[in-house]
Structure formats: structure tokens, C-alpha cells
Design brief:
About 35% of the residues lie in helices and about 10% in strands. The chain has about 150 residues and is α/β, with parallel strands linked by helices. The protein has two domains: about 1-30, no CATH class; about 35-150, TIM Barrel (Alpha-Beta Barrel), CATH 3.20.20. A hairpin with a 2-residue loop joins β1 (about 10) and β2.
């Protein structure tokens, strides 16, 4: 599949056509990454990853990205206080809860994301250092390989 951006009419005229000359997978195979990255995060061996995007990079999206060759994913931003209190962010990312809640019903493909969603970074945001530290501990207890501290979002 060759990637392509659609030309859109802008106030200053249409954007240029950005069709790639060859498949993105071929470009990725020929591109090298800093060798320190896979040494720190085993399995992260491609020059791209699926970044965290609030409201989108949940377990189903990450699994879709992985099934298309993405070697490393980041969760959407998880609020430290929500992880600590056991709220929605915690229940959506806890691999034990996912395993309990998934795999039921008639669909054979209904599997817990936590079983194949690695390596992974949990993106953590908050305002109090002690709460962020506790949130990071929770993510590490969940089996995350990386804790990504988000200092930009509020």
C-alpha cells in the first residue's frame, strides 16, 4: 500500500500532492534507528511508533497498529489521580482486569490487549510529584516497559 495525502483546497491554494514513491513499509525497512533504543526497550526495532493520542490510542487502536507492523505503542494520557483511585483510566489499562473482562462470548478474536500489547509506554500526566510517582509505580506494576511523563497537557 502506498501512502497518500488528499489534496485539500486551502485559502492560499491547494496543498501539494504527497504521494510516496514506494510503500512505507519498504522505507521503514531501510531506515535505521539509534541502536540505544532497542537496547533500552527490547522489541522496539523500527523507525516509527504509535504515539499517545488522547481519546484514540486505547488498547484496540494499539492492537490494530501492532497488527500492521508497529513495534512500540504509547497509551493515551493517563491521569495519575485516576490510576491511584482506580477510575476509568486504570480499568482500561490494567492487564488483569482486561484479561478478566475479555475472552468471553462467542468471538474467538476477543482477547485481552495486555497479552500482546508490548513493548508499551504508559503516558502519565499530573501536577503533584508524589502522585505522579505513585501513578508511575502502578504502570510499572501493570508491566509497562516505559513510563512517558506528559508535562505539556493540562
Amino acid at each position: 500500500m502506498v501512502g497518500q495525502m488528499t489534496t485539500v483546497d486551502e485559502p492560499d491554494g491547494p496543498l501539494p500532492d504527497r504521494t510516496l514513491s514506494r510503500p512505507l513499509a519498504d522505507i521503514a525497512r531501510e531506515t535505521t534507528i539509534d541502536p540505544r533504543v532497542p537496547a533500552l526497550v527490547p522489541g522496539f526495532d523500527a523507525p516509527f511508533f504509535q504515539a499517545g493520542l488522547a481519546g484514540y490510542s486505547d488498547a484496540p487502536m494499539r492492537l490494530m497498529a501492532r497488527r500492521h507492523g508497529c513495534p512500540f505503542c504509547v497509551t493515551e494520557a493517563l491521569l495519575d489521580r485516576t490510576l491511584i483511585s482506580g477510575g476509568k483510566g486504570r480499568t482500561r489499562e490494567d492487564p488483569d482486569l482486561l484479561a478478566e473482562q475479555c475472552g468471553t462470548g462467542d468471538l474467538e478474536e476477543n482477547r485481552a490487549a495486555g497479552l500482546e500489547d508490548h513493548p508499551i509506554a504508559g503516558q502519565l500526566m499530573g501536577t503533584q510529584p508524589a502522585e505522579m510517582a505513585r501513578g508511575a509505580e502502578i504502570l510499572l506494576d501493570f508491566g509497562y516497559e516505559v513510563v512517558d511523563l506528559n508535562f505539556a497537557a493540562r
